[in-house]
């Protein structure tokens, strides 16, 4: 079925909304805001431009790829907005383009949408537009990052009841659908449905003004914004790959904010530490020798001195990791401990595998995206050295953002031998579902292998709520570490934001992925 015919079959209009069928599910099941249907336009921003320096230029501003850090830090809640927004401090879902939502069936959610909202191109935001955005990102063949990361293989059913009422149905009961939709940005219905676009029209407080590729990206305050106008008329982004350079731009007054700094980059008193939801790990391919042998994967875990890396490279600002999600995420297993550093044990496992005919001398290519996070180049060199000491043959391959995609997401490169990708995974949603489905399931967009048992554990956990959900995901992480070993977890990261004294902003766990410009004010 073509994208256009699928859309016609999924989006149906009705004239009346039936009574709600069921009550709430979790804390996400029902939410509304009194009087939120009224626009809250404030006075236009009076400040000039806010200057921000990033570690890398966004490869695109396509909204359905906004879950990629380099894209989302610019796009999310700035150019585009979702129906609901997660508060990164409390974890609560808060109304945005939807003013209320509730479960109205075992597999059905009903959303009430904010009236009198327009996109940057003048199109109206309504239930038809919301259905278009969801259909385009989840049900199409665009291969959107948000589809693989958040929604998986199943399509969503969409029913437009009236201009401000949208029903969404799922293939299976989904107690966290509103949370999933907080990751899906709304775009104008005039957006190309068959191809991705570099510069979307959204409903956010800023519109795209000018993108000088390779030099600078400028956003302009949107005059027709439905909410309170941001303090700054413009936001100008530049990018510098070296952390010390980004820090110097803040200390010299050239930039107001510098993203992705490390503790040694030289921001001094202008460097603000904040909690981070990112976890660094090596993700192994599981079908190519020698990484197709679990003994080799376990050996690599023993060979990596995680505590030494945290202390030596990151001044103990990071924490050695035992799983892909840090403390505070639903499903984090507090009983799991980082693999101990035991080089003798690593050598023993490699020798055992070699004796059984495993070609342990075969190359293992470690894929590294330069500039992805502070000291990644140094970390890659340390990992290469430590893994080689176990008797294996690791080789570094530095790639850019576009090249890394073919190693990190399906379909993977198959003609370069065994692959270990140095990944940085951030769980912004606060729930393990957004980690295990894509990274551990046999059909996950970023999973190289899985097992029937692990798939069953993941499926069971996804249907639970409350304490049962927590325990079920704990079992998933335990089984992964004991029976699958697709990862060598390295550290849970912390972040450092360079912040000029002219700016008032308190970073949070989502700041590295979603820097909300409307929250930034002039100091004093």
Low-confidence segments, ≥5 residues, pLDDT <50? 1-27, 34-45
Helix content: 25-40%
How many DSSP-defined strands?
Answer: 23
Q: Strand count, sense and closure of the main sheet? A: 11 strands, mixed
Q: Multimeric state of these chains? A: single chain
Shape: globular
Average pLDDT score? 90
**SS-based class:** alpha+beta
Q: What is the alpha-carbon Rg in Å? A: 23 Å
* Secondary structure tally, helices: 14
Strand content: 25-35%
Distance between the termini: 57 Å
Polypeptide structure, described:
It contains 14 helices and 23 strands. The chain is α+β, with helices and mostly antiparallel strands. The strands form 5 sheets. Strands 3, 12, 13, 14, 15, 16, 17, 18, 19, 20 and 21 form an 11-stranded mixed β-sheet that branches.
Topology:
Layout: H1 3-10, E1 11-13, E2 30-32, E3 47-54, H2 69-75, E4 84-86, E5 93-95, E6 98-105, E7 108-113, E8 117-118, E9 124-125, H3 127-139, H4 145-151, E10 157-162, E11 165-169, H5 177-181, E12 206-212, E13 216-221, E14 232-239, H6 243-251, E15 257-261, E16 271-284, H7 294-303, H8 306-314, E17 319-320, H9 343-355, E18 363-369, H10 376-389, E19 393-399, H11 401-408, E20 418-426, H12 433-439, H13 452-463, H14 466-484, E21 487-499, E22 503-504, E23 521-522
Parallel strand pairs: 1-10, 3-14, 3-15, 18-19, 18-20
Antiparallel strand pairs: 2-6, 4-5, 6-7, 7-11, 8-9, 10-11, 12-13, 13-14, 15-21, 16-20, 16-21, 17-21, 22-23
């Amino acid at each position: 079925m073509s994208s256009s015919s699928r859309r016609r079959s999924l989006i149906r209009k009705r004239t009346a909304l039936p009574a709600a069928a069921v009550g709430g599910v979790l804390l996400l099941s029902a939410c509304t805001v009194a009087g939120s249907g009224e626009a809250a336009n404030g006075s236009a921003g009076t400040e000039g431009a806010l200057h921000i320096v990033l570690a890398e230029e966004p490869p695109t501003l396509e909204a359905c790829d906004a879950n990629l850090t380099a894209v989302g830090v610019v796009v999310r809640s700035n150019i585009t907005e979702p129906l609901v927004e997660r508060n990164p401090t409390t974890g609560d879902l808060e109304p945005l383009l939807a003013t209320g939502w509730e479960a109205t069936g075992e597999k059905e959610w009903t959303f009430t949408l904010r009236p009198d909202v327009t996109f940057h191109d003048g199109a109206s935001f309504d239930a038809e537009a919301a259905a278009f955005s969801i259909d385009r990102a989840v049900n199409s063949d665009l291969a959107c990052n948000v589809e693989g990361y958040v929604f998986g293989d199943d399509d969503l059913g969409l029913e437009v009841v009236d201009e401000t009422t949208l029903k969404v149905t799922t293939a299976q009961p989904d107690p966290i659908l509103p949370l999933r939709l907080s990751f899906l940005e709304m775009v104008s219905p005039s957006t190309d449905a068959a191809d991705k676009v570099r510069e979307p029209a959204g409903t956010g407080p800023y519109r795209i003004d000018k993108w000088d590729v390779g030099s600078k990206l400028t956003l302009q305050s949107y005059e027709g914004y439905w909410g309170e106008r941001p303090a700054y008329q413009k936001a100008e982004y530049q990018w510098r790959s070296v952390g010390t350079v980004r820090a110097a731009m803040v200390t010299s007054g050239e930039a107001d904010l510098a993203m992705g700094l490390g503790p040694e980059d030289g921001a001094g008193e202008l460097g603000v530490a904040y909690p981070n939801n990112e976890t660094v790990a090596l993700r192994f391919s599981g079908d190519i020798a020698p990484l197709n042998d679990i003994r080799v994967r376990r050996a690599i875990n023993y060979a990596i001195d995680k505590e030494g890396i945290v202390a030596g490279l990151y001044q103990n600002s990071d924490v050695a990791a035992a799983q892909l999600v840090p403390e505070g995420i639903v499903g984090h297993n507090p009983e799991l401990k980082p693999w101990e550093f035991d080089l003798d044990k690593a050598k023993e496992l490699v020798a055992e595998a070699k004796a059984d005919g495993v070609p342990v001398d075969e190359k293992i290519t470690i894929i590294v995206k330069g500039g992805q996070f502070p000291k990644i180049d140094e970390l890659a060199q340390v990992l290469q050295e430590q893994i080689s000491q176990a008797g294996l043959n690791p080789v570094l391959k530095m790639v850019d953002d576009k090249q890394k995609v073919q190693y990190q997401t399906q379909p993977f490169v198959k003609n370069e031998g065994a692959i270990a990708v140095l990944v940085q995974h951030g769980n912004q949603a606060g729930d393990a579902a957004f980690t295990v489905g894509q990274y551990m399931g046999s059909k996950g967009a970023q999973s190289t292998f899985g097992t029937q048992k692990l798939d069953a554990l993941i499926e069971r956990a996804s249907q639970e709520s409350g304490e049962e959900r927590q325990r079920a995901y704990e079992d998933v992480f335990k089984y992964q570490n004991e029976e699958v070993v697709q990862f060598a977890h390295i550290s849970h990261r912390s972040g450092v934001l360079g912040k000029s004294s002219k700016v008032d902003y308190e970073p949070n766990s989502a700041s590295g992925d979603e820097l909300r410009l409307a929250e930034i004010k002039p100091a004093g």
